[in-house]
Write a structure and sequence with these properties.
It is a single chain. With 171 residues, this protein is an alpha/beta fold. It has a single domain, classed as Rossmann fold (3-Layer(aba) Sandwich). It has 7 helices and 5 strands, in the order βαβααβαβααβα. A 5-stranded parallel beta sheet has the order 2-3-1-4-5, sandwiched between helices. The longest helix is centred in the middle third of the chain and has 21 residues, at 51-71.
């Protein structure tokens, strides 16, 4: 197996990114990195109103995500990591991009259980924002090596499928 692994897990809110990424990172003894945590640690958009300043800050946050991917030995999860990871594939051909998808009603129920339904309204706004930012649909199939619809399988089953896929890819 490859020494320096890079596994990017993307998906919309309540698609299982965090739950599955934490389990994969633990079972493969890799660093777990959350894009949400990177944003929270580094984001200070309050007071910035100039669109050019916001764009600079957003690009800076993307550069932090890319730095994590380049460092390697990680499972990184977030909405944009599949697209950003794809930009690194020429330098790291073993990088694996996984997209988690779930039926919207299933995601709604998951979000409701953890009190995050409000975030679901951001999904369509974020997809549009990412299109404006990158000029592409970051959830397009073309950026992902493996796409899993986990609407009707458990997190454990999703983890098992992903681990088997990773093992085969990195043999």
């Amino acid at each position: 197996m490859q020494n320096n692994r890079r596994i990017c897990i993307s998906g919309l809110l309540a698609s299982g990114k965090s739950t599955i990424a934490k389990e994969i990172s633990s079972s493969l003894d890799l660093r777990y990195v959350s894009v949400g945590n990177i944003y929270r640690r580094n984001s200070s958009l309050s007071g910035i109103e100039n669109p050019e300043e916001i764009k600079k800050w957003d690009n800076y946050l993307d550069s932090l995500i890319v730095e994590e991917i380049q460092e390697g030995n990680l499972v990184i999860e977030g909405r944009t990591v599949g697209y950003l990871g794809n930009t690194q594939k020429k330098d790291f051909p073993g990088l694996i991009n996984i997209l988690l998808s779930s039926d919207p009603e299933v995601r709604k129920e998951r979000a409701r259980k953890r009190g995050g339904e409000r975030g679901l309204r951001r999904d369509s706004l974020d997809v549009h924002r990412f299109y404006e930012k990158y000029g592409v649909d970051i959830f397009s199939d073309c950026y992902y090596d493996c796409i899993i619809d986990n609407s009707f399988i458990s997190a454990e089953e999703s983890v098992d499928v992903i681990k088997k896929y990773i093992e085969r890819r990195l043999e």
